[in-house]
Amino acid sequence: MKLLMLGSGTSTGVPRVGNDWGECDPTEPRNRRTRVSIIVENDAGQRILVDTSTDLRAQLLANSVDKIDAVFWTHDHADHCHGIDDLRVMRYDRSNPIPGFASEVTSARLRRRFDYIFEGQFGYPTIIDLKLLGQMHMVAGFSFDHVEMPHGPVSNTGFRFEADGKSIVYATDFSEITPQMVRCFEGTDILVVDCLRRKPHPTHAHFDMAIELGRKCKARQTVLTHMDKSMDYRSLCDEVPKGVTVGYDGLEIEA
Asked: SUPFAM superfamilies, alphabetically (predicted)?
């Protein structure tokens, strides 16, 4: 399996509008962060996209991605789903809609906000065939599991994907580590984890919490993502313990 990190930034990206880099060195290319999204790929070349970030078109172009086999959504916050229209191009050469998966709450909200994507409109075809997560546990050559995670006052879905004897976990946008999360993620080869900033935050994991989840899950490798303008890449590289990688846009890792 392979992880491709399309985006590694928080909801405003780095730099923020106004060219605000915060504590991030603007001369370090890996500090330029678009909104979070990943692709997992198996040995057969099948790809699952997780979240349709606001920067999806630019991310797909930057990484020469022109095909996906399924899409999953963690939740309906704008930075994780408002790039959904960029999936239209992925539908052009298909005879049927792209399989999509989300929780019941997220599915309902996506359908209200982007009805044309899931129903077709004015002669245009349906782009995504959206299914609830509980209905299937195999898709596009991957098996998967999922768990609901606290995200402040709401919840967010964490995913575990397995193929070719390897596993990749995507756990972004959570504010508490639960026993259910640890059970779902235990022993994963790669844990991609929320790491907004160093100081605690009411709706996101901070640095110490991100490292703690990797330790509790016994992840072989932990990769930090969803970082804000306080998280300078080089400084973080000097801080992280062994087995932890500071994520960046375009990062590729083999599980």
From this structure: Metallo-hydrolase/oxidoreductase (SSF56281)
Q: How many CB atoms lie within 10 A of CB 166?
A: 18
Average pLDDT over all residues of the chain: 96
Residue ranges per domain, the chain? 2-254
Position 135 pLDDT exceeds 90: no
The domain covering 2-254 belongs, at the CATH homologous superfamily level, to Ribonuclease Z/Hydroxyacylglutathione hydrolase-like (3.60.15.10)
Nearest Cα residue to 166 out of 220, 216, 213: 220
Please state whether the peptide bond connecting residue 99 to the residue before it is cis, i.e. omega within 30 degrees of 0.
no
SS (H, E, C) 155-219: EEEEEEEEECCEEEEEECCCCCCCHHHHHHHCCCCEEEEECCCCCCCCCCCCHHHHHHHHHHHCC
pLDDT tens profile 20-49: 999 999 999 999 999 999 999 999 999 999
Beta carbons within 10 angstroms of residue 176's beta carbon: 11
42/115 Cα distance (integer angstroms): 31
Chain segment 152-178, per-residue pLDDT in tens: 999 999 999 999 999 999 999 999 999
